[in-house]
Amino acid sequence: MSIVKGGCLCGTIRYEVNGPLGRADNCHCSMCRKQHGAAFATYADINPDDFTWVNGVDCINVYETASGAGWCFCGKCGSTLAGTTSGQVTSITLGAVDGDPCVKPESHIFIASKANWFEITDDVPKFKERQKWLVS
Ligand SMILES: [Zn+2]
Ligand SMILES: [Zn+2]
Questions:
Q1: 83 exposed, middle or buried (CB, 10 Å; 0-12, 13-18, 19+)?
Q2: How far is the CA of 46 from the centre of ligand 2 (A)?
């Protein structure tokens, strides 16, 4: 079985995913842009049952929006490590994975709210929202 490991910049928080990574996407929604301070955020879906925090649980901060979407980040260095849905870890940020996660983003999602200053130049399919309303 594949084990994916990752952690934050300061090394306090470590996690493991004891199972395959699911679909990966680049999310351009305004919440992810703000939360990451970047043009977009890249996540891979996971099975919540496969996910374990290994170190630094005391340092984990969770910010959840009214919609139920949330992020887990390090209280010391600010790295965003995982996405949550209704309090459960349902995705990991690919940027915090150790080494090669062996998945690549299959789509750009929520490009209806993409930053004007960022241009998508690859051939990865673009969706206005979440994997629907394909934009050519
Ligand atoms: Zn940290
Ligand atoms: Zn998003």
A1: buried
A2: 16
Residue type, 8: C
* Ligand nearest to the CA of residue 15, numbered in listed order: 1
pLDDT in tens, the chain (136 residues): 579 999 999 999 999 999 999 999 999 999 999 999 999 999 999 999 999 999 999 999 999 999 899 999 999 999 999 999 988 999 999 999 999 999 999 999 999 999 999 999 999 999 999 877 777 6
Separation of CA 83 and ligand 2 centre (Å): 10
Structural domains of the chain sorted by starting position, each given as residue range(s) with its CATH number in brackets: 4-113 (2.170.150.70)
How is residue 79 annotated by DSSP?
Answer: -
Which ligand has the nearest atom to the CA of 9? 1
Residue 121 tokens, joined: 């130049």
CA of 96 to the centre of ligand 1 (A): 11
- pTM exceeds 0.90: yes
Question: From ligand 2's centre to the CA of 114, what distance in Å?
Answer: 10
